[in-house]
Design a protein that fits this description.
The protein is mainly alpha-helical and about 180 residues long. The chain has two domains: about 90 residues; about 70 residues, no CATH class. The strands form two sheets. Strands 1-2 form a two-stranded antiparallel ribbon. Strand 3 and strand 4 form a beta hairpin. Helix 2 crosses helix 3 and helix 2 crosses helix 4.
Length: about 180
């Protein structure tokens, strides 16, 4: 028979699975009306946090002495956040990675001509899709036909990644500024 600690660890390890189940339930009960599927994965993870914390507290954390309970709470919180982060990126990759979608499309059709596949993936549509996602996530807004940052969250993250690319010695990302390329 499994001890409480083993069950506790198994539940923690299964957080991506529990988040996926929660997302499926929420999507089938009305959350699918949201414009961003990625946002539904974040909402699923957040909505699961309190019930999951209560379950883990009842199962194991509440039985510990005061010091161990605090350390256990910090550990459990960190694991929950990191496992939710893992789930978000796995889900996001399955939603947005062109290679994944192409492989699925080729496999589901039992073969596909390259010209047919190219017809499904034109660059204008890809840019439009990305702009729609950024608007749905509240990261950009449109004024008089121009895009502006609405929230600095992704901009700060992108700037940090750009800084890290330079630290690692990679060439800077290519950005266009008024029709000319800026290194």
């Amino acid at each position: 028979m499994m001890g409480k600690f083993t069950i506790f660890l198994a539940l923690l390890a299964g957080i991506p699975l529990w988040t996926a189940v929660t997302q499926a339930v929420l999507m089938r009960t009305g959350l699918k009306l949201m414009r961003s599927r990625q946002m539904t994965s974040l909402i699923s993870s957040a909505s699961l946090a309190i019930p999951f914390a209560g379950l883990l507290w009842h199962l194991y954390l509440g039985t510990l002495d005061e010091h161990d309970r605090f350390v256990g709470f910090v550990f459990t919180s960190a694991v929950y956040i990191l496992m939710s982060y893992i789930y978000f990126h796995i889900f996001n990759m399955s939603e947005t990675a062109r290679r994944i979608r192409m492989i699925l499309e080729i496999g589901q059709r039992s073969g596909l001509k390259a010209s047919e596949l190219k017809g499904h993936y034109n660059s204008i549509q890809m840019i439009e899709n990305r702009i729609e996602r950024l608007i749905a996530l509240g990261q950009v807004e449109v004024h008089e036909g121009k895009l502006f940052t609405k929230s600095k969250t992704l901009y700060i993250a992108a700037s940090a990644m750009e800084w890290w690319r330079r630290i690692l010695g990679f060439p800077p990302s290519r950005v266009r500024d008024q029709g000319r390329q800026v290194p």
